[in-house]
Design goal:
This is Armadillo repeat containing 2. One of its GO terms (biological process) is sperm axoneme assembly. The protein is mainly alpha-helical and 645 residues long. Helix content is 71%, strand content 0%. It is built from 38 helices and no strands. Helix 3 runs parallel beside helix 5, helix 4 packs parallel to helix 6 and helix 19 runs antiparallel to helix 20. The N and C termini lie far apart (88 Å).
């Protein structure tokens, strides 16, 4: 066996720079006895003995942290090359005593190297607990992340979770998972954890814990451990690979089991819903959550049990909003669960009252005069809760039931009564959008219908605001409500129609569509058609047809229907239209009715087919009739040049 240095301890001495002078105090006091023992030893046991003596030397040199760290690295390498990690090293106990004494120095860089070495020696019991506490303490300081990243400690921590006995080492597991949780807050280390199989290891640990029944003495003791485990998973699900592993491994199912078993533990429940809230933002994960047959039962149970726990409630209603956003089956399944509507109403009342009380206090105090930049906690719950109601109301049967629910409609109206768009934009817009969805249903027992005039009054505040999103939602509600004669009269009396005509100039496709819908409903009444002559209404409709027609046949159809209603009783084109508007309209209609010109737009195949279908079935019939009517009443036709649009 060869030796790198002439002296058996030269590799350690070289690191410390003490191999230069025989007058050095360390050499005089410490080296000579070791040197003699080393020369006396057999080469067969060389690594064993040199490791032991090196450790004694380390302890003697404990004042120099940097050199200690370097020496620890060399010692670790020597132990590893000598295959003496685990419990094979016969001087293991003496070595551990030295390493634990060095821990008392209190250096984090040194502590990490010592911890890695101690864990590699496969300690158990109190020794395992103490080293896990050490790593936990060091990992709490994010400044140590770079040290952990370069020290290869993650493998050792994950091996504890994978191979050690959970029930015997319950407390050690707690500190180990706590350390991993802190480590997972670092993006680089988070990726490293995933690549080392952390998701699968945590999944197996979850399964093991979930199999422990509530009457088992270990059940309650593992609660704190699960808080750390779920907090770590919460960080892990930020990565696409982790989410994929969670779905493929069945970890989502285990989380549902844990949620049901630990319903009384608010911290565990909060961490689980944080995981689910992140997952629900992705379509495939959202579908996996909805696959659990008891997901809505469990969410409702959580909401009822922890109704005042805002941080938990806000995430549950956020998840429900995502689950019901695009899935009609999910809307129906949730609403069919016993007590679903009552739970939502109770939450609405609770947080609406909290918000009202907060507003009163704000008015009474002088310290809150500055405009609030973000929603309050109560407002945040209301925003997400109302979004759930808006999603549910898209389902025909569910929407009809909700429209007839006095409590829900009254609460939505209350929001519009005491909140302005400047107070909380998202809350007011969500409430208005939900009222719009509910106003679609014309059932006899519709509460929206009963309150329609009061709602119309409240919407005027939104129309007068400078917030285009708020204006759009208000106009959409007027679009549905203007099917009632009383609302049409309200629109005329309060000059709301002038606002609708002005909005045609907005150059905003959705706004123009909704405003045109209101004008179409007004022109059903022969006595109200003349309003289109005011404020340049006809010209603005023709401009909208020109600007948006080729890309939105629904809007083009709506414009043509409005002009068709308007022109029903005219005796000549000139009596109802300005000459310029007539000529423009004739050119536009002739162009849009030419299939080659009208459909000459770049869309993907699915959109192109839909575009063509709507053009053929909806736009073309009414546009052709309108063109024929105008031509039949137009006494003088000028030559028309058809151009492509």
């Amino acid at each position: 066996m060869g030796c790198l240095f002439k002296h058996p301890f030269a590799f350690i001495l070289n690191l410390y720079g003490v191999y230069k002078s025989s007058e050095n105090s360390y050499i005089n006091l410490f080296l000579k006895p070791i040197q003699q023992q080393a020369y006396d030893c057999l080469w067969v046991g060389f690594i064993d003995r040199i490791t032991f003596f090196s450790c004694q030397f380390l302890f003697a040199c404990k004042d120099n942290i940097e050199n200690l760290c370097l020496a620890c690295t060399s010692l670790h390498q020597a132990l590893e090359e000598g295959n003496m990690f685990g419990k094979r090293f016969k001087r293991r106990s003496a070595l551990l005593k030295i390493l634990y004494k060095l821990v008392d120095i209190g250096s984090d860089p040194l502590g990490l190297k010592l911890a890695r070495m101690i864990l590699a020696l496969k300690v158990s019991g109190k020794n395992l607990l103490n080293v896990c506490k050490l790593v936990f303490k060091i990992s709490r300081n994010e400044k140590n992340d770079s040290l952990i990243q370069n020290d290869g400690l993650l493998d050792s921590l994950l091996q504890i979770l994978r191979f050690e006995d959970l029930q015997t080492n319950n407390e050690a597991f707690l500190y180990c998972l706590g350390a991993i949780k802190f480590i997972s807050g670092n993006a680089v280390l988070l990726n490293e954890l995933v690549n080392k199989g952390a998701v699968e290891i945590l999944f197996q640990l979850m399964k093991q814990i979930n199999n422990i029944k509530e009457n088992d003495t270990h059940f309650s003791n593992l609660g704190h451990l699960l808080v750390q485990l779920t907090a770590t998973l919460r960080n892990l699900v930020d990565l696409p690979l982790s989410r994929c592993q969670l779905l493929c491994s069945g970890a989502v199912s285990e989380l549902w089991v844990m949620l049901e078993q630990r319903m009384n533990d608010k911290d565990i429940c909060t961490n689980i819903v944080r995981i689910f809230s992140k997952l629900s933002s992705y379509n495939d994960c959202c579908a996996a959550l909805a696959d659990c047959s008891r997901c809505y039962v469990l969410f409702l149970a959580l909401l009822n049990k922890h109704q005042k726990k805002q941080d938990l409630v806000v995430r549950v209603v956020f998840i429900l909003g995502n689950l019901t956003a695009k899935n009609n089956q999910a809307r129906e399944q949730f609403f069919k669960e016993k007590g679903s509507a009552d739970t939502l109403i109770s939450l609405f009342q609770t947080y609406n009252e909290l918000d009202l009380n907060a507003k009163k206090k704000k008015h009474e105090g002088e310290e809150n005069k500055s405009k609030q930049k973000h929603p309050s906690e109560a407002e945040d719950v209301l925003i997400k809760l109302i979004r759930v109601l808006a999603n549910l109301s898209i389902h025909p049967s569910v929407g009809a039931v909700l429209a007839a629910n006095h409590h829900i409609v009254a609460l939505l109206v209350t929001v519009l009564e005491y909140k302005s768009i400047d107070d909380c934009e998202e809350l007011v817009i969500n409430a208005t959008a939900t009222i719009n969805n509910l106003s679609y249903y014309k059932a006899r027992n519709s509460v929206i219908e009963d309150k329609k005039l009061h709602i119309a009054e409240l919407l005027l505040k939104l129309l007068m605001s400078s917030n285009m999103d708020g204006i759009l939602e208000a106009v959409r509600v007027f679009g549905n409500l203007s099917q009632y004669l009383e609302i049409c009269d309200f629109i005329i009396q309060r000059k709301v129609y002038k606002f609708m005509i002005a909005l045609l100039d907005a150059k905003h496709q959705d706004v123009c569509f909704s405003a045109c819908g209101v004008l179409l409903n007004l022109t059903v009444d022969k006595n109200k058609r003349a309003i289109l002559k005011e404020e340049g209404g006809i010209k603005k409709l023709v401009d909208c047809l020109r600007d948006f027609g080729p890309t939105d046949w629904q809007l083009a159809c709506l414009i043509c229907k409005t002009l068709w209603n308007y022109s029903e009783n005219i005796t000549s084109a000139a009596s109802g239209f300005e000459e310029e508007d007539i000529n423009t309209l004739l050119v536009l209609l002739a162009s849009f009715l030419d299939e080659e010109l009208a459909l000459d737009y770049n869309f993907d195949s699915d959109l192109r087919d839909y575009h063509k279908l709507y053009w053929e079935t909806e736009f073309k019939p009414v546009a052709q009739k309108l063109l024929n009517r105008i031509q039949s009443h137009h006494s003088f036709l000028q030559p028309i040049t058809i151009t492509s649009f």
